[in-house]
Amino acid sequence: MLVDSPPEATKAPAPAAPQRRLVTRSMGLLASVAVLAVVTVLGIAVGAKQIPLDQVWHGVFHYSGSDTDVVIRDVRLPRTLLGLIVGAALGLAGTVMQALTRNPLADPGVLGINAGASAAVVSAISFFGVTSLSGYVWFAFAGAAVVSVALYVLGGTRNATPVRLALAGTALTAVLTGYINAVNLMDTAALDKMRFWTVGSLAAATTPTVSRIAPFLIAGGLLALLLARPLNAIALGDDQARALGARLTRTRVLAMVAITLLCGGATAACGPIVYVGLMVPHVVRAITGPDLRWILPYSAVLSPVLLLGADILGRVVARPGELQVGIVTAVVGGPVFIYLVRRRRMAQL
Fold this sequence. Notes:
Blueprint: H1 17-45, H2 53-61, H3 67-101, H4 113-127, H5 133-154, H6 162-186, H7 188-194, H8 207-226, H9 228-234, H10 238-243, H11 248-270, H12 276-288, H13 292-317, H14 325-342, H15 344-347
Helix pairs in contact: 1-3, 1-13, 2-3, 3-8, 3-11, 3-12, 3-13, 4-5, 4-6, 4-11, 5-6, 5-11, 6-7, 8-11, 12-13, 13-14
């Protein structure tokens, strides 16, 4: 008995769409790295004093002790490096928070994590006389961790909704900001030390600052990247995540550790900077889709682009002075936050 074989035309061709998506995402990530390299060079070259690119190269790689080399090596290079690692940390923290809480409005600044770290640092400076980064970075970690737990409790634990978490974060931020202002008003010495730090600034960056804070941010960043797959499962809901073999408790604990390291370290180094972790993940999702294995690397690259771009803009528009980068990101991010809140699709989550 003969059995007719299916005609050649009916055989399904090998799927090419996943391969095309992989190539597109890879090329996009490479393009993002190229943009970051350009912004990094501009961060060293642009400021109150314009420095030609050949002198930038000389100051970075052939230091001779000239005034221009001193500006490049001792001022602008540490500032740019700090912007790179802090921007990446804020972008990764915001992405992890949005995935963990399934809240598109989650951000270390919006939900009060940065305010908790700031309040702890203010207390360390005013009440305990701590003045060095190596001393108050531990207070920043503790403050970020305490607020993370408080936010989870006030937001309703497993029944938390985006709106409830945003309201809880706003309330915590208001309370902690009032505490910070009260401490600063009562302690003028602490106010003098923190008046630029409290609005978020890269201006005080030094090489020791970068070297001391980098290990914490790198550890938090690597942990966040390793959590991409289980966080993808959690984004589908707890029941489906369990069915896929995800360990929910362990993933949530490790995610909070990553957020604490990233937010605490970034805030200790340059103060509270808001909206970077909110804006960039939304832009990235439009490029990559919902897969955190791509969103996290993209956010780690594009968030420093935003932060360094804001820092450059603040130096250019207020010459010979400067606007702190925290002010620039707040001015840009405020309207973006309002837009996201008003979007019907977001409001219904």
